[in-house]
Specification:
Nucleotidyltransferase, domain 5, 5-stranded mixed β-sheet, 30% helix, globular
Length: 236
């Protein structure tokens, strides 16, 4: 199984390749320079594994939420590579990737993933890791920090840039009770791979098939009208 994972939805640009149960990964903190480095990173990862794009089984990408420009870059690069080599695509939530990183690095099982969404809002979602599988608890949301809430007292672990940008607001929010916080974390492509691998293994299950045609490799913004110019948006 050979799966390439790509993430450009935050300031961090990352690529990871799963090949023969080995992971080749790269991360670069390059705000506003993703287009300059992403293809080079892909080629370097493939070279390390001694593979070509034609040897891949699928390409996984971070579908969002995240920055508008970063999401477009991630989707368009994935579309270009997949279309050229007739590969299926596996879209994965960037919040799920962030939570999977907390499983890997912090050994946590109840995770609040929270990313800065600009405009005084955060993207957030709760996840639980059970039986080697990450499960969404509730739904992904974009709200003000004051409206972030946890449904029960599981001993949640916070992770993501939302806690860096809105630490004070989240700390005084009585609905958010966390055991610990890792605020300097970004979604990383290497943490996308376990989720993409599970999707690949479920590809023949009609109810749980996450693989899509390249034409459906589209971003998920969460915020309404994100792509509409300000002057064209309806007045409130």
């Amino acid at each position: 199984m050979n799966i390439l994972a790509i993430d450009t939805v935050t300031e961090m640009c990352s690529v990871a390749l799963l090949s023969n149960k080995q992971i080749h990964s790269q991360e670069r903190l390059v705000p506003q320079q993703h287009t300059q480095v992403i293809l080079e990173m892909v080629q370097q990862s493939l070279a390390e594994a001694q593979l070509g794009l034609s040897n891949l089984d699928a390409i996984s990408f971070s579908r969002g939420p995240g920055s508008f420009t970063g999401l477009r870059i991630c989707a368009s690069v994935t579309q270009g590579l997949a279309l050229a080599h007739d590969l299926p695509v596996i879209p994965v939530s960037s919040l799920a990737v962030l939570a999977q990183g907390a499983v890997r690095l912090d050994k946590q099982t109840s995770i609040l993933a929270c990313m800065d969404a600009r405009k005084n809002e955060v993207y957030w979602a709760c996840y639980q890791y059970e039986n080697n599988q990450l499960n969404l608890f509730g739904e992904e949301q974009v709200t003000t920090p004051a409206n972030v809430k946890l449904e029960n007292n599981l001993g949640w672990h916070g992770v993501g840039t939302g806690f860096r940008q809105f630490a004070d607001e989240l700390n005084v929010n009585s609905l958010v009770n966390l055991n610990a916080v890792e605020a300097k974390r970004y979604p990383l492509a290497q943490d996308m791979l376990p989720l993409a691998e599970q999707a690949w293994q479920m590809r023949n299950n009609s109810e749980n098939n996450m693989l899509v045609d390249v034409s459906l490799a589209l971003p998920t913004y969460l915020r309404d009208n994100v792509a509409i110019p300000q002057k064209a948006r309806p007045s409130k």
